[in-house]
Amino acid sequence: MLYSILADMNDELPGALRLQRLVQTIQTQFNCGAVGLLAIDDDALKLVSAKGLVHESLGRRFKIKEHPRFAAILASREPVLFEPRTPLPDPYDGLLDGRAGEPLLVHDCLGMSLYIEGKLWGAITLDAIEDTFTEESIDILARYALLIQTCIRITQLEKDNKSLRQLSIASGQSTAIKTEQEIIGQSEPIRKLMRELDVIADANLPVLLLGETGVGKDLFAQHIHRHSKRSHKPMIHVNCAALPENLAESELFGHIKGAFSGAETERPGRFEAANGGTIFLDEVGELSLNIQAKLLRTLQNGEIQRLGADKSKKVDVRIIAATNRDLKASTLDGSFRIDLYHRLSVYPIHIPPLRERGKDILMLAGYFLEFNRARLGLRGIRLTKEAEQALMAYDWPGNVRELEHIISRAAIKMLSGGASRNNILSIEPRYLDILNNHPAIYSQDETQTDTPSLAHEPIKPAIQPMNEALKTFQHDLIAAALEQSGQNWANAARLLEMDASNLHKLAKRLGLK
User: At what angle do helices 500-509 and 489-496 cross, to 10 degrees?
Assistant: First the structure.
């Protein structure tokens, strides 16, 4: 174990891989079911690496005050061994990766707090489903404490150095990156996006975030601001779709006293509030042409003019805009100014939809599961293997927001159906409400696994107009392909030998989406 960890510390490995090897080596050394490496994040612990736990556990955030075992581990400088009959609930109950998918319970648990430069960093936990740990296990883990902490420290230093290289920190500005609402995900599309955001954050250019509804564009806008030179100044969020037409100009640019009926005092607008910082214009495509013209002036000259005022004011504001619309197409139909479009889209960034993020779906599900466990006062809540497969196969038209609502709704449905809060609840696919119920025209013969077959008895079709018959056939054929591919649109497109984008367009025309 010592040689393996030292070798990984000397190698130039990605931080995530080094920590993954660390927990895997410890799992092998102690012959236990699961190992978790957890870092403190405000008042919670989050798994930064794990072995032997279900994938969705990586998205969970364990509130320390809600988990007495974690609190006990963090309160001690020495390893803590919990006896099998300890009444304290284990945070990982139901989250051990069971071979048959059953919610396995932790029987034996050993944990140790970890310190970096004298400051509490987090903890490492070892869990087993049968008697595994002894007094000797405590001594061995204590001896390896410094080695584990050094491995973490090297990984942390590499991350900090990379961040400092990417950020040209202004003279005299604090180098500490402020906490922000976390972006959860480890998929390659998200890793690539985060690398791009880290580079563009300090460029001070206008950024246009493009993506479907529910992908979390506001989180990525926050990330850009937090990692820019303007992070010590405010970031003002404006929901353009919620601005009433008659108040939009006043909200954005302010007004003077008497500018309109009811304007009894002078009032600065959002741009003045964001001076020196960033303004985030969410759903910018919803602004009227009149406001677009005034916004263009601000982008061109760095000036705003309060409603009713004679003089303009200089402002220093970085603009991050976001939309789920095709702004380029909107310039063609005249609903969006082409000159403003070019000003806003100096650097367009596409936020990937949830269906392209692979196992990030399970990590995000884990985050929402833990949130609902705490909110509803549950002992534990998890996904069955079948539910995980259903989530991975679904197309997610509402993206992360839809996933959050589906998980919350499923938890409440289980409780309303009579499930006990004292048990570990296992969410089955029927609680998710994401199954496609369209009938398929193909049925799978029990003796054949590869070739779909038509019903044995031929059915004479009713005579109907050719166009209607074609639409019906296309509808049923797509539904059958979706059912056979587990509701995965990309796989369905391959089965039908169609381009995926063309399939989505056809499905919308046929009412399947």
Answer: 100
Q: How many CA atoms lie within 13 A of 21 on its CB side?
A: 19
DSSP structure class, residue 307: B
447-to-444, 450, 451, 453, 454 alpha-carbon distances in Å? 9, 10, 10, 11, 14
Look at residues 435, 357, 427, 414 and name the one whose alpha carbon lies nearest to residue 388: 427
Query: Residue 464, exposed/middle/buried by CB under 10 A (0-12, 13-18, 19+)?
Result: exposed
Angle at which helices 360-376 and 385-393 cross, to 10°? 120
pLDDT value at residue 482: 82
Look at 77-81, 410-414, 479-483 and tell me which has the smallest mean pLDDT. Answer: 479-483
Strands 119-128 and 108-116: antiparallel
Q: Which two tokens stand for residue 440?
A: 């398929």
8 Å CB contact between 128 and 108: yes
Mean pLDDT, range 252-281, rounded to an integer: 89
pLDDT (mean) for 462-491: 75
The dihedral sign for the CA sequence 171, 174, 177, 178:
negative
| Tens-place pLDDT, residues 388-445 | 999 999 999 999 999 999 999 999 999 988 999 999 999 999 999 885 433 333 333 3
